[in-house]
Design goal:
Blueprint lengths: L24 H18 L4 H17 L1 H11 L1 H4 L4 H12 L1 H39 L4 E5 L8 H7 L4 E14 L2 E8 L1 H7 L3 E5 L8 E5 H7 L6 E6 L5 E11 L7 E4 H4 L10 E6 L5 H10 L6 E4 L1 H44 L1 H9 L4 H38 L17 H4 L69
Parallel strand pairs: 3-8, 5-7
Antiparallel strand pairs: 1-9, 1-10, 2-3, 2-6, 2-9, 4-7, 6-7
Length: 495
């Protein structure tokens, strides 16, 4: 609009002089060296170095933006020719001052680069989580507490007694020291553990996890200098007991399988209180609606228990990543909006600076409509240049970063909080006493509280039917000092 309002007489005004072009040889040389250095950093094994390399590459590309603008505008020439004189003038204006074009497109490029890179990384991470659940977990279901409290041992016994269950194992978690260093210990049933999980073993075998043996993750083994076949001293913080165990194998940890595993028969005598983190279950015929109904009914339709299949576990672990990604998307959307406003502001100032030039064009016969079209086409070319450069750079950086985290999701990330660890254990504290499970759980609702929808299931959005049915509505806990109500066969309040 401002360009169309400049009168032809402005051509007689010599106040404005076009900026002189400075040599870009030094800038292009420095930009090329920075990009080359950042690219080398991207292909290292250290994730922190890869992150630094991504920032270095982005800085180098920003420095090279004036050089990259010329081939892009040249590639758009066939399309601009369709608009006649206005299109040709728009192309010449875009390449005449590459510094201005680069500064206008850089802000938009940065925002789109970050959005594209994070989208690629999130997609790669989500796929890695799905593959992790499919490759590491052979169990059809995991049974745990919905509020991440520990389970009573009766849950595992009840599940193991079902004829439809072909294999089950509790995961009995404690803390102690392995080889003198603190570690998270998990007791499992060695007879069925190999039928429920499939860890990525570096050495050893799950068949050797018998008797006084232990299965170490790669990090613990490397820190303690242990190998398969070595003996290691294990001490338990809970009961204060000690044991000397032989290393049966070393595996690569992830969000689903991490820490130190040993037979539950070795761990239980050293614990002052017996609790389970979760129970792994494998059903005859695999996961199905009927199989989950069987587990729900066997556990008394306890709403405090959470029964999840592989899809539900993957969705729960990825939920934390999705939430963080949405927050970042909101912030980056604001950045892109500011960048678009910057493009508009820069072009408006450009029109003001080119009053002499536009006045001359008006004087020789270019009407207002063509002047407006020239400015609009120039803005479109610059915006497309920033968008294409940002998306391309984001795809490249996302591909590199996705390759770093895609094959295996490092444990200890935000997704680990959703992998079934109690809140106290995620903070490094000892867990509280179990509050649910067969023989320990929520009191049965009073007869007057049966107004809920019997047999209804909650859909958390994290997978098919990941929360068991609530029968008789939401149970109400008794007052603090009220006498306990009679407990059902599988539910008793822990005091």
């Amino acid at each position: 609009m401002r360009g169309g309002k400049i009168p032809p007489v402005a051509a007689m005004n010599s106040v404005h002089t076009p900026p002189s072009l400075r040599g870009l040889v030094l800038r292009n040389t420095l930009g090329s060296l920075v990009v080359a250095f950042g690219t080398v950093l991207l292909f290292t094994d250290d994730n922190y170095v890869v992150s630094a390399g991504a920032g270095v590459v982005m800085v180098g590309v920003i420095v090279l933006t004036p050089l990259l603008s010329r081939p892009f505008v040249a590639a758009a020439e066939p399309v601009l020719r369709l608009f006649g004189v206005a299109g040709r003038l728009a192309r010449l204006n875009a390449v005449r001052n590459p510094r201005r074009t680069a500064s206008t497109a850089s802000a938009l490029m940065i925002g789109l680069t970050l959005i594209t890179a994070m989208t690629v990384v999130a997609t790669s991470t989500s796929g890695a989580i799905d593959r992790m659940a499919a490759d590491s977990l052979k169990a059809d279901y995991t049974v745990s507490m919905a509020n991440y409290e520990p389970l009573g041992p009766e849950v595992g016994k009840t599940v193991a007694a079902l004829p439809e269950v072909t294999a089950s194992s509790p995961v009995r978690t404690a803390y102690g020291k392995v080889g003198g260093g603190p570690s998270r210990l998990s007791g499992v049933d060695p007879e069925s553990f190999g039928s429920l999980v499939q860890p990525d073993l570096d050495s050893g075998s799950l068949r050797d996890l018998r008797g006084n043996t232990v299965l170490l993750d790669r990090d613990t083994a490397a820190e303690r200098g242990l190998r398969t076949g070595d003996e290691v001293a294990v001490s338990f913080d809970d009961g204060g007991g000690r044991a000397r165990l032989r290393v049966a194998g070393i595996y690569r940890p992830n969000d689903l399988l991490n820490g130190v595993y040993l037979p539950v028969s070795v761990m239980t005598p050293h614990l002052s209180e017996i609790t389970d983190e979760k129970v792994l279950v494998r059903m005859r015929g695999g996961a199905s609606d009927e199989a989950q109904d069987t587990l729900v009914k066997a556990l008394g339709s306890n709403p405090a228990l959470k029964i999840q299949d592989k899809d539900a576990l993957s969705g729960e672990i990825g939920g934390a990543i999705d939430m963080l990604l949405k927050m970042l998307y909101g912030l980056l959307a604001m950045a892109v909006l500011i960048a678009v406003l910057g493009v508009i502001n820069t072009l408006a100032m450009s029109v003001f600076e080119r009053r002499h030039e536009i006045g001359m064009l008006r004087a020789i016969g270019l009407d207002r409509a063509k002047v407006k079209r020239m400015v609009r086409l120039e803005s479109v070319v610059i915006s497309l240049f920033g968008a294409v450069l940002g998306v391309g750079l984001g795809l490249f950086l996302g591909w590199v970063a996705g390759g770093a985290v895609g094959p295996d999701v490092p444990h200890g990330r935000p997704g680990a909080a959703a992998a079934g660890l109690p809140r106290e254990r995620r903070r490094g504290r000892r867990p509280r006493r179990p509050v649910a499970g067969p023989g320990r759980g929520t009191p049965e609702p009073a007869p007057g509280d049966q107004g809920g929808v019997a047999g209804a299931r909650a859909d958390t959005g994290y997978g098919r039917r990941s929360v068991p049915r609530v029968v008789g509505g939401v149970p109400r806990a008794p007052a603090r000092r009220a006498p306990p109500r009679p407990a059902p066969p599988l539910l008793r309040l822990s005091r």
